[in-house]
């Protein structure tokens, strides 16, 4: 029996097809890798959210940033984000912003309204009617309230940091050391 030497043209075609398949798979792997890297380093949100149904379905913390920021709006931030992250997502401070009135190190809460005042505007620790906002007040502002000393003010802030924003004034009852009598004395002096 005589052996037939393989056609060098068919061998080249097989090598060409194999090389094309390997090249296609390599290109797909590189594309997928670039997508994974971009997703890992991309900010969560860089523009205001317009579709509220998308906001409700996400696992991010959604923060409404208003006032003296470059692009006010609703932003998705990491659940462990701080005020500095929310302000950065909104494009940073404007020239008129009162940077000292905002605690940039404070953790943000899902559903929070974060207002950055302009210089001379009422600070975030107080409401326009003179009441103290227990969701934004620092220990010093809380300490000005009757029957609230520095220790109890610190417990209010610690409870807020651990559990999130107060949804009503009655939620203060969950803070160790605040009972019905203290709450009744605070009811007209605080807001959420």
From TrEMBL:
Residue ranges occupied by any Helix-hairpin-helix DNA-binding motif class domain in the UniProt entry: 140-159, 170-189
Gene3D superfamilies: Outer membrane lipoprotein wza domain like, Tex RuvX-like domain-like
Superkingdom classification of source: Bacteria
Protein name: Helix-hairpin-helix DNA-binding motif class 1 domain-containing protein
Organism: Microbacterium awajiense
């Amino acid at each position: 029996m005589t052996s037939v030497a393989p056609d060098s043209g068919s061998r080249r075609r097989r090598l060409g097809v194999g090389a094309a398949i390997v090249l296609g798979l390599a290109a797909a792997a590189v594309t997928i890798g670039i997508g994974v890297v971009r997703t890992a380093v991309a900010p969560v949100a860089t523009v205001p959210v317009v579709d509220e149904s998308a906001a409700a379905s996400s696992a991010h913390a959604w923060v409404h940033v208003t006032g003296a920021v470059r692009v006010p709006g609703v932003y998705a931030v990491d659940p462990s984000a701080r005020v500095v992250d929310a302000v950065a997502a909104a494009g940073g401070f404007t020239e008129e912003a009162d940077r000292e009135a905002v605690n940039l190190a404070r953790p943000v809460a899902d559903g929070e309204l974060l207002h950055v005042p302009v210089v001379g505007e009422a600070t975030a620790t107080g409401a326009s009617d003179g009441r103290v906002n227990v969701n934004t007040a620092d220990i010093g502002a809380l300490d000005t309230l009757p029957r609230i000393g520095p220790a109890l003010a610190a417990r209010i802030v610690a409870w807020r940091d651990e559990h999130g924003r107060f949804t009503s004034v009655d939620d203060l009852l969950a803070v160790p050391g605040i009972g019905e009598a203290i709450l009744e004395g605070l009811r007209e002096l605080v807001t959420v």
